[in-house]
Amino acid sequence: MNPEVKAFFHKPTFTVSYVVMDPGSKKAVIIDSALDYDNASGRTATTAAEEIIDFVKERDLEIEWILETHVHADHLTAAPYLQEKLGSKIGIGKVVKTVQETFKKIYNFGDEVSADGSQFQHLFEEGEQLEIGGLTLEVIATPGHTPACIAYRIGDAIFVGDTLFMPDYGTARCDFPGGDARTLYRSIRKILSHPPETRLFMCHDYGPDGRDFAWETTVAEQREKNIHIHDGISEEDFVKMRTERDATLSMPTLIIPSIQVNMRAGHLPEAEANGTAYLKVPLNAL
């Protein structure tokens, strides 16, 4: 069986979130949600999450999992809010512990932030499988962009996180702590080894050259047209291109707030004595 997929595009961060449904039941999962966050004021909102909640309730769906493909550096996840409203468990790849250890040092967190993955209800292993109604979800380890990246294969669809973008935009950067271009090349080739008709769903799109936003493609289209990693691009060619390109990129606008929240499974810091919660800004660290 193949899933029904509903996409939600969060234009402020160019993030695509998904509700993935078993057409034979009311079972579903949510992948890579987004919390609204205004960087200038520090205000959060749940407008995007409410769109997902409204859809889930309209379709009378039972959410089995709220899934993350990795610790995002460009948007805050709405996973805890969705969990509060819809129930279910939050899951991510088990190598999130490595990301937590790395960024716990960068932010100089103490015991208030653990690096054992316990903020999530489940840490997925490579090849692990789950049943979503009549569908089978399989976890694919896809490190390179970050060491903890995973993709989710559900029927004929793979939700690739930040490994790949649409063919005219290429591939993910690899210059964050723990990233590696050679590893990313191998992860992408693993994804592209699936049947040509396999549907691939992106986590982001930026509408290059003014085209309409898009987030669904296929293995065949990526292998033929991806500007960074189409068939014929060697590992060495890719590593050279990716390394040189990454050296020209600035940090994502929301990397400082995003990682310190997302490494906690989306939970905001506890409020201090005055009733206000605070994020930390490490100076000259990234």
How do you describe this structure in short?
The chain is an alpha/beta fold and 286 residues long.
What does this structure look like?
This protein is an alpha/beta fold and 286 residues long. The protein has one domain (4-251): 4-Layer Sandwich (Metallo-beta-lactamase, Chain A), CATH 3.60.15. The protein contains seven helices and 14 strands. It has helices spanning 47-58, 79-86, 96-107, 181-191, 219-225, 235-246, 255-262; strands at 4-10, 15-21, 27-31, 36-38, 43-45, 62-67, 89-93, 122-124, 129-132, 135-141, 150-154, 157-159, 199-201, 216-218. Strand 12 (157-159), helix 4 (181-191) and strand 13 form a beta-alpha-beta unit.
Helices and strands in order:
Elements: E1 4-10, E2 15-21, E3 27-31, E4 36-38, E5 43-45, H1 47-58, E6 62-67, H2 79-86, E7 89-93, H3 96-107, E8 122-124, E9 129-132, E10 135-141, E11 150-154, E12 157-159, H4 181-191, E13 199-201, E14 216-218, H5 219-225, H6 235-246, H7 255-262
Parallel strand pairs: 3-6, 6-7, 7-8, 12-13
Antiparallel strand pairs: 1-2, 2-3, 4-5, 9-10, 10-11, 11-12, 13-14
Helix pairs in contact: 4-6
Helix count? 7
The shape, in one word, is globular
Task: Work out the count of structural domains.
Answer: 1
Please indicate the percent range of residues in DSSP E strands (runs of 2 or more): 15-25%
By CATH's scheme, which homologous superfamily applies? Ribonuclease Z/Hydroxyacylglutathione hydrolase-like
- Any low-confidence stretches, pLDDT <50, length ≥5? none
Quantity of strands, as a count: 14
* Average predicted confidence as pLDDT: 97
What order do the strands of the largest sheet run in, or round the barrel if closed? 1-2-3-6-7-8
Q: Biggest β-sheet, characterized?
A: 6 strands, mixed
Distance between the termini: 44 Å
Provide the gyration radius in Å.
18 Å
